[in-house]
Amino acid sequence: MPVKLNEGLETFQAKRQEFINLVQNNAPQVEQDAAYSELLNAMAQDVKNAAIAEAREEAHQIIENQERNKGMSQNEIKFFNDINKEVGYKEEKLLPEETIDEIFEDMVRQHPLLQALGIKNNGLRMKFLRSETSGVAVWGDIFGEIKGQLDAAFSEDTAIQHKLTAFVVLPKDLEEFGPKWIKRFVSLQIQEAFAVALEAAFLKGDGVSKPVGLTRKVAKGTSVIDGMYPEKAATGTLTFANAETAKNEMAGVFKHLSTKENGEPVAVAGKVLLIINPQDEWDIKAAYTHLNDAGVYITAFPFNPTFVTSEAMTAKKAIACVVDRYDAIVAGGVSVKQYDQTLALEDMNLYTAKQFAFGKAKDDKAAALYNLNVTSLPTA
Q1: For 315-327, how does the pLDDT look when each residue is reduced to its tens digit (9 = 90+)?
Q2: Is pLDDT larger for residue 228 or for residue 299?
Q3: Torsion 361-40-110-102 (CA) sign
Q4: Domain ranges in the chain?
Q5: DSSP notation for 322-377
Q6: pTM of the model
């Protein structure tokens, strides 16, 4: 029975909101770092308190049962059996690749924003290719003269340098736990810690030792000072005041996103995300949910953008973006090493888990920032 993140993690939830608030308010990096550290420590303690009884009970029940490790590879079983004896004492070790894949899949599945952005796991590859296709195909006779040419301009981006670090805390008496539970405990902490940081960075990251968020300017010629990308100004305000207004406002959003920075057209139908804070979602849904003649509530919105909520998104703001025009990538595996400084939590061992991440829009027209002012129900 897995540990449930939403149960018994009150301290972590509070610390997560404090971290998100600092990110949204562009607080100094030192304050953000301190809040992230507090978030990780709170999660470790909360997860321990919520899971310790269950884990011990499970460990005793399965200690003689060989099926306790069903579903785990031999590589994983060895790694998590030895984590209290070997990992970190001599050198950093990578988590088994199958464990990393599972963490990534669970993280994406449980966080709609990461799923919607199409985040990619490049495994151990530290470079990636970005391509832009140009040219047209021209009809002609078979074996005839080549009248059109399709060019794909590939560029190799620099190595992914943005290191994401999380603390992983484990009880010292690991001999009482089976490798299956240790894997779950490690995976749970890494998954949630990385997800919080990635969402905040993909939305608002300034590019300094972190991804460049959707709210940042990336146009050619943009003045980047000490690695920091400037914030975008709001493109406009979305009110959805009535049906006609909403139609025109959303048409403007789609039109803005339908060209690249260089003026080339982009097909955006079915590919536009509208990223909002969870509390704003209900204002919009209430405005566009109606009771039809059959007595059934229906929700209809102009041009069908995909609404995605994130606690990291500032309230009363919205980001409109095209799903395949933002590169969101993690790579490099997840290395684990024992932390060699004193840990405040009693009877616990502290490890660090590190992975590399990259995020950046293809150009300034890939995303636009809007103010939200949804104040009244629409009229026909």
Answers
A1: 999 999 999 999 9
A2: 228
A3: positive
A4: 10-128+161-215+327-356, 236-325+365-372
A5: EGGGEEEEEEEEEEEEE--S--SSTTEEEEEEEEEEEEEESSGGGEEEEEE---S-
A6: 0.79
